[in-house]
Specification:
65% of the residues lie in helices and 1% in strands. It is mainly alpha-helical. 34% of the residues are buried.
């Protein structure tokens, strides 16, 4: 058996290891596009700050101390899983579980199951919202595919009680939003860090983008403005990219210290190393 570039990974003897996510999957298209990934985490940053388990973030102190750096670390882990073969993805999920368990031992208590589900649900929801904002709405089959991939991620992380279908997840997502989010001191502390690391005008832009991306309940708790005027500008962005202006826009919108990481979000299979640390949970 001859294995060629673009096919599942070959093992000695000609056997193959299946990809964790099919190569023509909408999930790979979403998570291989750096601009969409940035929108995923722009929305997640808002919801993270409202979660009732936000105290786990402050226990380790890593995300509040470096919110942008943690974003890229988490994105690298997510891409490592999405673009890996099944065996590599399983090892990556095991590493994340080990990180969670180490934090739990250090604190002497367990991260609540519902907090794990909240984070997983955020990645599903904002993947869909970001793709719709920058490209188009997902169709029904793509929605099912998106949920199936992330449900397998959740199972690999040992998250219990995950809904079986996309439709059931939509209902559970709404229950989690209403039950698990509250604005408190942790919310304001995290947003102060966002502003510190982004600077005033970039922070203002983040708020406007979050106003477009987030569900109504999140938007209301954070008192975000919908900023409908921004949507046509975002729709214009792909035109500017085709005109060769993407690099210039990235330099304008992102702090220079993180510019290389931003450009690294465009997935290249041969350039997807496992980061040393990651926290894809409110820990």
């Amino acid at each position: 058996m001859i294995c060629r570039r673009g096919t599942p990974k070959c093992l000695r003897g000609g056997s193959t290891v299946a990809d964790f996510v099919q190569r023509d999957s909408i999930v790979r298209r979403i998570w291989g596009d750096g601009d969409i990934v940035l929108l995923v985490f722009a929305g997640s940053a808002a919801e993270f700050a409202l979660n009732r388990a936000v105290d786990w973030l402050f226990f380790t102190g890593k995300l509040p101390a470096d919110p942008i750096g943690r974003l890229f670390s988490t994105a690298a882990y997510a891409q490592q899983i999405v673009f890996a073969d099944t065996q590599t993805a399983t090892r990556a999920l095991d590493r994340i579980r080990a990180v969670h368990q180490a934090v739990e031992r250090q604190r002497g208590q367990n991260i609540p199951d519902w907090a794990h589900r909240d984070v997983l649900y955020m990645l599903i929801d904002y993947s869909e919202r970001a793709h719709e904002t920058l490209a188009r709405p997902l169709n029904a089959e793509e929605q099912r595919e998106l949920y199936d991939v992330f449900r397998r991620v959740g199972v690999g992380l040992g998250i219990p009680d995950l809904p079986e279908t996309y439709a059931e997840w939509k209902e559970d997502r709404e229950r989690h939003l209403r039950r698990d989010l509250v604005r408190g001191e942790g919310t304001d502390a995290l947003y102060a860090q966002y502003r510190k690391h982004l600077g005033p005008w970039r922070h203002h832009l983040l708020l406007r983008i979050q106003g477009l991306l987030t569900p109504d309940h999140v938007r209301g708790l954070l008192r975000l403005k919908r900023a409908a005027w921004l949507r046509p500008l975002i729709r214009l962005y792909p035109v500017l990219v085709r005109a060769g202006l993407r690099s210039m826009i990235q330099r304008a919108l992102m702090p220079s210290a993180h510019l290389a990481a931003v450009r690294g979000l465009d997935h290249r299979p041969e350039r997807a190393p496992m980061p040393r640390h990651a926290e894809q949970v409110p820990a």
